[in-house]
Design brief:
Helices cover about 60% and strands about 0% of the residues. The chain is mostly helical and about 150 residues long.
Amino acid sequence: MSSTGSEKLEGGWFPYPPSRPVRLIPPIVLAYIGDSIYEIAVRQYLISLPNLRPHHLHRKATSLVSAKAQSRILSFLEPILTEEEHDIVRQGRNAKSGSIPKNADVLEYRHATAFESLVGYLYYAGQHKRLQELIKLAIDYMESPAES
């Protein structure tokens, strides 16, 4: 990889490519990896801040990764998504997860799954610049005083 980091990374950050092309990965599976990728981004963001007390980190992370937060993030991002990204979101929103949400209503949970599917898709499609852009917008939106 070049020092500019501008190259497209196929399949992710580690030497374990997906078993099939990204467009053939089920939305729930994309949400599975997307949940982790978004969590890492949030944790890295929080560690960049001056307050590193573990309880504060956990509480703040929870406020950014909850289904309710992810649902709000998706609503915020939808106007700037590409047609392809809208398609991924729609598939993620309509996917049947087989589990019942514990701390969110069904609609929030489906929107959160759609957001996580989008993150997973961008990750496996190697669209890391776009992924970084959307996550930065998401965190900035959730951290803005109007959203607190």
